[in-house]
């Protein structure tokens, strides 16, 4: 992102004075999808693309926030009980409220922000926005007294309370804790995490953005979370002497024991989650051994589970996954919440050009547009730029 561009928009729309500039990244997730809210493991990394914002206290009664990309200005007061109606602004309003709840004495401010995280690509532009403003408000008004984990939880609470998405903590965690050249294995139950060097020799990590985002009725994300909770409830009834907080606490035998006590759909969802928990740990072992073939195999297994068991894929993403298989790509899967967005692909250097050319050609022939190629560079988490 261009610092001077963000600054020029800030100066134009406000009083000509400059403020502080902050940035926070989007993320990729190598493996471990829909496991965070089930207490399992995830394996994300921050990327170079993200959100950049210039912010300055204004001494007024209202917060004035300008979205450079949308060319939209929103005003709200700190103690407004309802907040703005525009969805993008509710992320920022929510962060203001959550930081105040943490004891940060947030004062009215002017802000302008822009992003280069592709919207709808499953790279968590919303978490980048939340983390950017949480970090900034902590720096400006809290003297950095709020911990990084509290910043993560403030972003998650914003999704829950102000957006209506009952997300886990992976997206905000990656955006806050990311480090250049490192992936992270996060235990979403204990919050313990470990950095893993990500500098694979002979391979590239690349996203293919289908540019598709299917409109869905209801809340399919929350529906799948409810399925998992239904199975946890059944497990608790079947095994009253054991505590089941999430599907993380279940093993395969226990899941089979309640198969006839839950719906076929709920069972499929839970089956995917238990398998994904095992796959993340297998990938960690494979990476430590430099075994990228196993990493790739587990990625394909995850795609199958997301498509057939969790049912969050779509025709276009399955198409891109099949192209990857046909081209001999080491690993490929849908990335993110689903129903559109990207596949993430682990590709040997020697077939990279052929794979990209084939994917573009075949996808355009099938869907009348090319996928967008996003080469992944692992970057740093939320930070102050200047």
TrEMBL record:
<keyword id="KW-0547">Nucleotide-binding</keyword>
<dbReference type="Pfam" id="PF00288">
    <property type="entry name" value="GHMP_kinases_N"/>
</dbReference>
<keyword id="KW-0808">Transferase</keyword>
<comment type="similarity">
    <text>Belongs to the GHMP kinase family. GalK subfamily.</text>
</comment>
<dbReference type="GO" id="GO:0005829">
    <property type="term" value="C:cytosol"/>
</dbReference>
<dbReference type="InterPro" id="IPR036554">
    <property type="entry name" value="GHMP_kinase_C_sf"/>
</dbReference>
<dbReference type="InterPro" id="IPR006204">
    <property type="entry name" value="GHMP_kinase_N_dom"/>
</dbReference>
<keyword id="KW-0963">Cytoplasm</keyword>
<dbReference type="GO" id="GO:0006012">
    <property type="term" value="P:galactose metabolic process"/>
</dbReference>
<keyword id="KW-0479">Metal-binding</keyword>
<dbReference type="InterPro" id="IPR014721">
    <property type="entry name" value="Ribsml_uS5_D2-typ_fold_subgr"/>
</dbReference>
<dbReference type="InterPro" id="IPR019741">
    <property type="entry name" value="Galactokinase_CS"/>
</dbReference>
<dbReference type="InterPro" id="IPR006206">
    <property type="entry name" value="Mevalonate/galactokinase"/>
</dbReference>
<feature type="domain" description="GHMP kinase N-terminal">
    <location>
        <begin position="91"/>
        <end position="179"/>
    </location>
</feature>
<feature type="domain" description="Galactokinase N-terminal">
    <location>
        <begin position="9"/>
        <end position="57"/>
    </location>
</feature>
<dbReference type="GO" id="GO:0046872">
    <property type="term" value="F:metal ion binding"/>
</dbReference>
<dbReference type="InterPro" id="IPR006203">
    <property type="entry name" value="GHMP_knse_ATP-bd_CS"/>
</dbReference>
<dbReference type="GO" id="GO:0004335">
    <property type="term" value="F:galactokinase activity"/>
</dbReference>
<dbReference type="Pfam" id="PF08544">
    <property type="entry name" value="GHMP_kinases_C"/>
</dbReference>
<keyword id="KW-0460">Magnesium</keyword>
<keyword id="KW-0119">Carbohydrate metabolism</keyword>
<protein>
    <recommendedName>
        <fullName>Galactokinase</fullName>
        <ecNumber>2.7.1.6</ecNumber>
    </recommendedName>
</protein>
<keyword id="KW-0067">ATP-binding</keyword>
<feature type="domain" description="GHMP kinase C-terminal">
    <location>
        <begin position="286"/>
        <end position="350"/>
    </location>
</feature>
<dbReference type="Pfam" id="PF10509">
    <property type="entry name" value="GalKase_gal_bdg"/>
</dbReference>
<dbReference type="InterPro" id="IPR013750">
    <property type="entry name" value="GHMP_kinase_C_dom"/>
</dbReference>
<dbReference type="InterPro" id="IPR019539">
    <property type="entry name" value="GalKase_N"/>
</dbReference>
<keyword id="KW-0299">Galactose metabolism</keyword>
<dbReference type="GO" id="GO:0005524">
    <property type="term" value="F:ATP binding"/>
</dbReference>
<dbReference type="InterPro" id="IPR000705">
    <property type="entry name" value="Galactokinase"/>
</dbReference>
<keyword id="KW-0418">Kinase</keyword>
<dbReference type="InterPro" id="IPR020568">
    <property type="entry name" value="Ribosomal_Su5_D2-typ_SF"/>
</dbReference>
């Amino acid at each position: 992102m261009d610092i001077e561009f963000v600054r020029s928009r800030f100066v134009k729309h406000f009083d000509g004075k400059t403020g502080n500039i902050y940035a926070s990244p989007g993320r990729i997730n190598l493996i471990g999808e829909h496991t965070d809210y089930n207490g399992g493991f995830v394996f994300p990394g921050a990327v170079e693309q993200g959100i950049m914002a210039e912010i300055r206290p204004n001494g007024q009664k209202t917060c004035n926030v300008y979205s450079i990309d949308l060319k939209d200005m929103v005003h709200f007061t700190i103690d407004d009980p309802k907040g703005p109606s525009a969805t993008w602004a509710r992320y920022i309003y929510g962060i203001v409220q959550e930081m105040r709840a943490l004891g940060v004495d947030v004062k009215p401010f002017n802000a302008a922000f822009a992003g280069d995280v592709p919207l709808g690509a499953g790279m968590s532009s919303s978490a980048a926005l939340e983390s950017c403003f949480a970090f900034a408000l902590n720096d400006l008004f809290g003297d950095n007294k709020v911990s990084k984990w509290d910043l993560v939880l403030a972003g998650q609470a914003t999704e829950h309370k102000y957006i209506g998405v009952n997300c886990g903590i992976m997206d905000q965690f990656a955006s806050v804790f990311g480090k250049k050249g490192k992936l992270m294995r996060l235990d979403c139950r204990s919050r313990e995490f470990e950095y893993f060097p990500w500098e694979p020799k002979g391979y590239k990590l690349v996203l293919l953005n289908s540019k598709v985002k299917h409109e869905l009725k209801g809340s399919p994300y929350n529906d799948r979370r409810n399925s998992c909770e239904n199975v946890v409830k059944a497990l608790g009834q079947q095994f009253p002497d054991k505590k089941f907080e999430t599907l993380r606490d279940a093993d395969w035998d226990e899941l089979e024991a309640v198969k006839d006590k839950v719906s076929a759909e709920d069972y499929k969802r839970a089956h995917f989650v238990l398998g994904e928990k095992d796959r993340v740990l297998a990938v960690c072992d494979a990476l430590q051994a430099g075994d990228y073939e196993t990493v790739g195999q587990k990625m394909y297994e995850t795609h199958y589970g997301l498509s057939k068991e969790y049912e969050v894929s779509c025709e276009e993403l399955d198409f891109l996954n099949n192209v990857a298989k046909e081209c001999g790509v080491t690993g490929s899967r849908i990335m993110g919440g689903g129903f559109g967005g990207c596949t993430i692909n682990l590709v040997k250097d020697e077939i990279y050009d052929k794979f990209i050319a084939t994917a573009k050609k075949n996808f355009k022939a099938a869907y009348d547009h090319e996928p967008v190629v996003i080469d992944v560079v692992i970057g740093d988490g939320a930070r102050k730029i200047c």
